[in-house]
Every structure is written in C-alpha cells, then in structure tokens.
Specification:
By secondary structure, the protein is an alpha/beta fold. It contains 34 helices and 26 strands. It has a domain of 281 residues: Hexokinase, domain 1. The strands form six sheets. A six-stranded mixed β-sheet has the order 1-11-10-9-12-13. Strands 14-24-23-22-25-26 form a six-stranded mixed β-sheet, with helices on both faces. The longest helix is centred in the middle third of the chain and has 37 residues. It is elongated, with a radius of gyration of 40 Å.
Length: 974
C-alpha cells in the first residue's frame, strides 16, 4: 500500500473518487506517495507554513484527552495529523548536512568530548582481500541470546567459509547482575562449545562481537562506554571487556583462548560482506537498534596516531540528536516514547528509526487518535494502553501488499478494539508514515557517510558497497525499497550496491580476526624482507671503516692498482681565495647535452661571478662515431658560442668539466679510462681529452683556446661552493650517479710527487664494494639490479645509493611482494615488469609528507599500477626503506671522508663544509636530512655543514681555471 491509500479513498467516497482535502495535500507536499520517485522538495516558506499546520500533533498529552466519536477518518486527516512525521527532501538534505557536521565533530580531538555522534575508532584497518585462511572462534554478544561460532576459512581457488554455531541464552538475572556473573556465563558457554566441538586442546584465535559502544586504543581492547538495549550488568562500564573475559576464562582453567579482535556488530557486518565484495566499505544495521560504520582516512581521525591508511569508524549514530540537534523534527510521540524508555534523553535518533521502538510509536499514535475519537469509534482497551503490546513485527505484517488489511484486522482484534474496515486501512496508513520516516532518516544519515567517502576519495562519482543487516531491513516488506529510492534521490552521484549479510556479525568477527592474522603474517614477511635494508649504527660504522681502508689503498702507490676506490689525483691544489679575476670559458660535457659558458669573475670589495651559457646537443651518431667527429662537433659549438657572445679573437683560458673516469697526470691532462652513459666514440679511451680538444681547435683554424684544466663534475661542485664558503673542502654529488672528492694532504698522495700542500682527490667512490667488501650488506634485490645493468659487477656502492638505481631496487621488491600476494592483488602487471619505470622523481613524490595516499595512488596509476589504499601504504614504505638506506650509506661514506681530514690535521674537532649537487639530494624530501644525521652520529668530532651548489659544475670548472691561472702567475689575465 502506498501513502495515499486508494482503498481508503474508495471506501469513503466511492469508486474512482478521492477526497478533495487529500488532493490539496498531495499538491502541497509534492506527492501523495512518499515512495514516488518524483517527490519535490518544498519551498522553504511553503514548508514552514505547512509545518505550522501540522503542529497540532505536538500539542497536549494524549492520555489527558477524553474519548470522543468523530466522523470517519479520511486520508487527508491522517496526513495532516502526522504531518510532522512527513519529511520533504529539503528537510532530509538538511538532516544529511547536520549529520556530516556531527561526524566531523566526532572525529575532531577538540570537539569529540562533547559530540553526540562519537565516531569511535575500531582499529580495523583493512577489509578482507580473499587470501584469509585459518580456523577461528567467534563470539557474538549483544541481545537476549548470544552465538558462538567456529569459522573455518579456506584460501583456495573457490574461497570457502564453513561455519558451525550454537546459540546460548543470556537470562535476565545475568544481564542485570554483576559483570563477573555475565563474563563467567560467557566463559562457561565458550567452554561448553569447545567441549562439543572437541577443540578444547586448541588455542584458536577468537573474534569477539560486542555490540555496545566501546572506546578502543587497539583492536584487542574495548572499554565499555555505556550499556544499551536491556543490558545493565554492574562493574563493566569503564572496564576493558577483553580483560574481564580473559579473567573469566583463566578462572575456569580448562581451556585457553586468544582474543585477537573485539568488534561492534556493525563492523562485523561490514567485514562479513567485505569477504564477498572487496568494494564493501560501509556497514549498516537497521534492526532492533541501528548503527553504521565506514572506512575513514586515518589522517582525519584525530584520536588515533598516524596519517596513512584507513580505519573503520563505528559512528554510533543512534545518539545523533542527543545534543538537541533534531528537536525541530521530533514529534510529541517521540518525546512520550523517550520519557518512558530505560534511557531518557539518549539514543534519540535510534528511537525514531529502529525496530525496538517503531511498534511502540505506532501504539502511542493509535492511543491518542482513539482518545480523540478518530479511530475505533473512540474505544480504548487495556491491551492498547499496555506498552509493548504493538510490536514492529506487527507494523511489518500490516504493511504487506496483499494480506496487510487482514493482518491489521487480526492484530487490532487481538488488542480488543473491534476495528472497522476503515480503521484497518487507517492503521495501515499510520504504520506506513512511521516506517517511511524511519527509512528516510536512515537514508539521510547514510547519505552523509557516502558524501564523506566520495569527498575523501576526491572522485566526482562514488562506487561502493554497503553491507547491511537487521530485522527491520530484512523483514519489513517495503522498507528496503523505500530506503533505496530515497537514498538515490539524496545522493544521485553515488552508485551503491547493498549486500545482505547472510551470516550475521559473528562471521564478521571471525573475518576481522582472519584479516588481523593475515596482516600480522604479511607484516612479518614484509619486515623480514625489508630488515636487510635497515642498517644499524654498528653496520654503518663498519661501512665507514671499510671505506677508510679502501681510501688508504687507493692513495698508496703499491696498492693503487688493486684498489677499487681509485682516489684519482685531480691536480687541483687550491680552492679559490677571492683574488681570482678575469673572463673564462667553461665546457661541461657529461651527457647527451653539453654546455658552453662564459664566466666573468671580478675580485675586489664586491666579488661577482657573471655567467652566460648556451646548451648544445650531441646527436647519437656523433656520440657513437669517431673521436675526431665528436671533438670537431664540440669545437663547432664553441665557435658558435664565441660568435654568439661576440668574443672570438683573443686566446681565452678554458676549463673542461669532463664527467667520465679519467686518469690525470696534470691539471690540464685527463686520460679517458672508459666511456659511460652511452658514449662510444672511437680512439678516445686511453687518450688525453684535453689534447683531443686542442687538436680539434687547430683543425678548425678559427680561434685558439688555452685548456687550463680538465676537471670532474664533483670537483667542479666543490670549487663552486668553495668560492662562496672558504671552509668548503669536500664535493659530493648524489643524483643519477654519486661521487665525492676532498682536499687531501700531498704527503698522503703517493701517486703524485711532492709532499707540500694539498690536492683535491676525486675518489670515484661509486666503485666501493666492487671487490666484494660490501657483499654482506648487499641484498638479493641489489644483486638482481646489478646483474641486469649495463656494467654488471661494477659501481656497486653507486647502485645502492644513486637515483639511477633506487627505482629499480624498489621495482624488484614490489615484484617480490606481488608474487607473495601482498600487493596489487597478486597480479604482476606489464608496467611492473618494465625496467626503469620507477624514476627517482617518482620516489621523491611518493615519499613526500605533503602527499595523501590518494595522490600516491594517482602517481601509481600514472605508472599503470592500479593500487588499493593498503597497496599505496606498502609502496610508500618500500620507497622509504630503500631511500633511507641510500642516505645512510652516503652518510657513512661522508663520515669516513671528514674523519680522514680531521686525523690528517691532528685536530680534536673539525669544522668543514661540503659542497653538494645532484637531483636525489636536492629533490628527495628526506634524503638530505637522513644523510646529515648519519654523518653527525658516525663522526661526533666533526661539525659538517652542507652547501648546495646552485650553478652546477660549469662555474666550478671556470673557477678551477681561474685558480690555475692565478697559481701559474699568468700576467695576461687581467
């Protein structure tokens, strides 16, 4: 039957006729049938006017009115009489907005203490993913009886859950007695169940569904806030129910149980449905009571530490309105029902919607209308006046399509009121209004949750599943259909699937336990893998010590040939002293592009460095052609630059930054050891690159150059920073590759004659470990990355640190975790198989503190990796562990360098500055901080400052040239 019941109209006015007043009311309210899809919200003023019309149902006390007989009740009279229970979409949207505000208050640390909607964290962080398995016990306590279940979960191709259960009574003397009696009873029943199932000797994990408001600080703890329903056991409120149950079990002493998780029945419902549908992220109960839970972003939950991932929030929405926020929609019947309840002033929303109260609301309406002579010819019976005589099951029976009127007659006859046919139809209409209001209100509050989920995900349209349970939703013939229709109108931008929980919340408690076990096992295996990347201070001290040994080997003439860390002399003997002056050319070659620079250095009171540069490309055919072709191309570009700057003419000094491994015999001589980075030009390896450049200049016969210095980019970085900061004596590059240089005492540089002064040593530390001295800290993932690299077995330290390789290490770990089913639902996608997909910039972005997990997911999506929230957390963890190890290893290397300088000079304490360049150091959100901290911890007798090189190594080459010119006393530079 609809709201405007046609049968009632026909009985009063004859076939095909509808009362005039009913027609007017239909026009005013937008629709005579609340179930209609085209109900229109009332205009605000119009709504207020009609609301005032309906206030007659909120005046006076029903019990005080003398029975009187009035003309037969018409449809419009019922609608007007109960107008305040009819809620337009405009009002429902307003309620939705109010509930969103209450949710926000409940999540806030500042407002939670006074919030009526408590938004309790459950510490359930993940829904089932289908890989759960094991044997579990579930306890389900929350009503007149409680269930104990044995749930066996098999993780095969066809997920299979088998359950055995027993129902036990909870007598009145137990639920109203002491807490000790209650939990002794639960422990006795559990012992009986285990005896029957012959599992007393097994210590099975237990999930405990405890359907009362609890405050949790972890998943296996639940402090009861307040009893609800009919429970009043003393000494439990404010206590941890897990401890009380464990105490009762221990007192028995004949079995053991491991209580892994305590969950609310709503959470249990979500988890039960989540096992069948992994899109399920909301749990809803509409039965004797009502409540909802959903998966909230951890960053919004002030009451829980951490900001990554999600956690299920138990809204406890039954208390919505306890602060007075629903007073404008509560009727006199709601207030009368509340006054006669066990908990006046509490759970006001629940009292307007749930099955425990719906029948009683209808009874109170019938009493008042009968006393006013609108029903039963004014007859009032003791049965009608007795609380609890009209149940919600009666409401459901009366609202059935076919037999509803007959059911009404039988139920009302049982109450002794001798109903007429008109009375029966009128009562059906009243039941419809009351149950429809309930469906509308629940749709509004659920709509608020769906809006929040959509906003959290930042998506214009939400697709989700709601796990639902409860006798009202399941048993009422019209409830679910009306509820769904209203919800679709209120949140049209959400596609919601409702999944009925067939097994109740007990299975859900077992699933929470299963998920907790799965996560614990996954966590153990993940930690076992990542533990190899986590370096202790002792290990880092050992790395520092070993590098120091390798440095000594590289400096000594007799061991240099066997050393992996070559400690190449750069013949740069001094840092700038501020007197450098003149115009210098610089050439910066290190990749497919190279720069030509004019650097104007001015000394005096106001020192300045002015730079002009132009970038040129090197085509692949020239990179891989002959040496003459390569250097002719370079000289051609220099010629173009001199023309561009208008300075072709005088012979100019030039510094050549050549970022390939070279053996230097002088500042202006660099013999190429081997090409890297895709260069393969012939007749260059084993030759002096400065001579090859001079020869190309001669062949062109256009200009002349004075090649003063051939320098490594790391040395260039040190010199650039040293010009600004005289204490800078170390250079470090951590980008695509990594290297370091520092000022060594000449007496220790056995490969070069002379004992006076200092010389910058280009360490080429990327090769540290190539002799196997780091094999004990290299992981299987490092070995795989090395094996598939272009230079297998070489640059092993660099492959653990630099940006070129970190992404590959991460990718290989993710593949391993995916194979084990920890990531991406166990599916290895084509992008994940692609080498080089994880560039350094992605690591830097993923690890950024400013990025929410949604943005991390967006980055992974950009890489073709469809991730869940949990996947994103794990990917971020892996990136963090790999980059932290890189920063720590780099810090250990730097600690070895600063300690050597300190000991060289016999100082108790060294103050020194490191000039740094490189994308990993500059762009990664945590690398520099971790590296600095590591240096500080490993070298406590050194105060090390780090200065970022802003102008690259080209400026450094010009400064080295300027220093070289100054030291040789060339008078032509002025």
């Amino acid at each position: 039957m609809g709201w405007g019941t046609p049968l009632l109209s026909r009985m009063l006015h004859g076939p095909g006729q509808v009362g005039e007043a009913a027609s007017v009311l239909q026009r005013q309210s937008g629709s005579g049938d609340p179930a209609s899809e085209d109900r229109r919200p009332l205009g605000k003023q119009h709504s207020q006017n009609l609301y005032i019309m309906g206030q007659n149902c909120q005046r006076g006390q029903a019990v005080d009115i003398e029975p009187q007989i009035r003309p037969p009740l018409t449809e419009d009279k019922i609608d007007k009489y109960l107008y305040a229970m009819r809620l337009s979409d405009e009002i429902l949207i307003d309620i939705l907005t109010r509930f969103k505000k209450e949710m926000k208050n409940g999540l806030s640390r500042d407002y939670n203490p006074t919030a009526s909607v408590k938004m309790l964290p459950t510490f359930v962080r993940s829904i089932p993913d289908g890989s759960e398995k094991g044997d579990f016990i579930a306890l389900d306590l929350g009503g007149s009886s409680f269930r104990i279940l044995r749930v066996q979960v098999n993780h095969e191709k066809n997920q299979n859950v088998s359950m055995e259960s027993e129902i036990y009574d909870t007598p009145e003397n137990i639920v109203h007695g002491s807490g000790t009696q209650l939990f002794d009873h639960v422990a006795d029943c559990l012992g009986d169940f285990m005896e029957k199932k012959k599992i007393k000797d097994k210590k099975l994990p237990v999930g405990f569904t405890f359907s009362f408001p609890c405050r949790q600080s972890k998943i296996d703890e639940a402090v009861l806030i307040t009893w609800t329903k009919r429970f009043k056991a003393s000494g439990v409120e404010g206590a941890d129910v897990v401890k009380l149950l464990n105490k009762a079990i221990k007192k028995r002493g004949d079995y053991d149980a491991n209580i892994v998780a305590v969950v609310n029945d709503t959470v249990g419902t979500m988890m039960t449905c989540g096992y069948d549908d992994q899109q399920c992220e909301v749990g809803l109960i509409i039965g004797t009571g009502t409540n909802a839970c959903y998966m909230e972003e951890l960053r919004h939950i002030d009451l829980v530490e951490g900001d990554e991932g999600r956690m299920c929030i138990n809204t406890e929405w039954g208390a919505f309105g306890d602060d007075g926020s629903l007073e404008d929609i509560r009727t006199e019947f709601d207030r009368e029902l509340d006054r006669g309840s066990l908990n006046p002033g509490k759970q006001l929303f629940e009292k307007m919607v749930s099955g425990m109260y719906m029948g009683e609301l209808v009874r109170l309406i019938l009493v008042k209308m009968a006393k006013e002579g609108l029903l039963f010819e004014g007859r009032i019976t003791p049965e009608l006046l007795t609380r609890g005589k009209f149940n919600t099951s009666d409401v459901s029976a009366i609202e059935k399509d076919k037999e509803g009127i007959q059911n009404a007659k039988e139920i009302l006859t049982r109450l002794g009121v001798e109903p007429s046919d008109v009375d029966c139809v009128s009562v059906q209409h009243i039941c419809t209004i009351v149950s429809f209001r309930s469906a509308n209100l629940v749709a509004a509050t659920l709509g608020a949750i769906l809006n929040r989920l959509r906003d959290n995900k930042g998506t214009p349209r939400l697709r989700t599943t709601v796990g639902v349970d409860g006798s009202l939703y399941k048993m009422h013939p019209q409830y679910s259909r009306r509820f769904h229709k209203t919800l679709r109108r209120l949140v049209p931008d959400s596609d919601v699937r409702f999944l009925l929980s067939e097994s109740g919340s007990g299975k859900g408690a077992a699933m929470v336990t299963a998920v907790a076990y799965r996560l614990a096992e996954q966590h153990r295996q993940i930690e076992e893998t990542l533990a190899h990347f986590r370096l202790s201070k002792q290990t880092l001290m050992e790395v520092k010590k070993r590098l120091r040994t390798e440095m000594e080997m590289g400096l000594r003439k007799e061991t240099n040939s066997k050393a992996t860390v070559k400690m190449l002399p750069s013949f740069v003997r001094s840092i700038p002293d501020g007197t450098e002056h003149g115009d210098f050319l610089a050439l910066d070659l290190g990749g497919t592009n190279f720069r030509v620079l004019l650097v104007k250095i001015r000394s005096g009171k106001k020192r300045t460095v002015e730079m002009h540069n132009k970038i040129y490309s090197i085509p692949l055919e020239i990179m891989q052609g002959t040496g003459d072709e390569l250097f002719d191309h370079i000289v051609s570009c220099i010629s173009d630059f001199l023309d561009y700057m208008g300075i072709k003419g005088p012979r100019m000094p030039l510094g050549f930054t050549f970022s390939f491994p070279c053996h230097q015999t002088n500042l202006d001589c660099g013999i190429l050891i081997s090409w890297t980075k895709g260069f393969k030009a012939t007749d260059c390896e084993g030759h002096d690159v400065a001579s090859l450049l001079r020869d190309a200049v001669k062949r062109r016969e256009e200009f002349d150059l004075d090649v003063v210095a051939v320098v490594n980019d790391t040395v260039g970085t040190m010199m650039t920073c040293a010009y600004e900061e005289p204490t800078c004596e170390i250079g470090l590059i951590v980008g695509t590759g990594t290297n370091a240089c520092y000022m060594e005492e000449m007496k220790n540089v056995e490969m070069v004659e002379g004992n006076q002064g200092q010389m910058c040593i280009n360490m080429e530390w990327g090769a540290f470990g190539d002799n196997g001295c780091l094999d004990d800290i290299r992981t299987d993932f490092d070995k795989v990355v090395d094996e598939y690299s272009l230079n297998s077995g070489k640059q092993r330290f660099e492959k653990m640190i630099s940006g070129m390789y970190l992404g590959e290490i991460v990718r290989n770990i993710l593949i391993d975790f995916t194979k084990k089913g920890f990531l991406f639902r166990g599916q290895i996608s084509e992008p994940l198989k692609t080498r080089g997909i994880f560039e350094t910039k992605f690591l830097s972005q993923i690890e950024s503190d400013r990025l929410a997990l949604l943005q991390v997911r967006a980055i992974l999506q950009q890489l073709g990796l469809n991730s869940t929230c949990d996947d994103s957390i794990l990917v971020k963890t892996v990136c963090g562990v790999v980059s932290k190890r890189a920063a720590q290893l780099c810090g250990a290397g730097m600690a070895a360098v600063v300690e050597k300088i300190r000991e060289n000079r016999g100082l108790d304490h060294l103050n020194v500055t490191v000039g740094v360049d490189g994308t990993l150091y500059k762009l990664h959100p945590h690398f520099s901080r971790i590296m600095h901290q590591t240096v500080k911890e490993l070298s406590p007798k050194c105060t090390v400052s780090f200065l970022l090189s802003e102008d690259g190594s080209g400026k450094g080459a010009a400064l080295i040239t300027a220093v070289g010119v100054r030291l040789r006393g060339d008078p032509s530079i002025a």
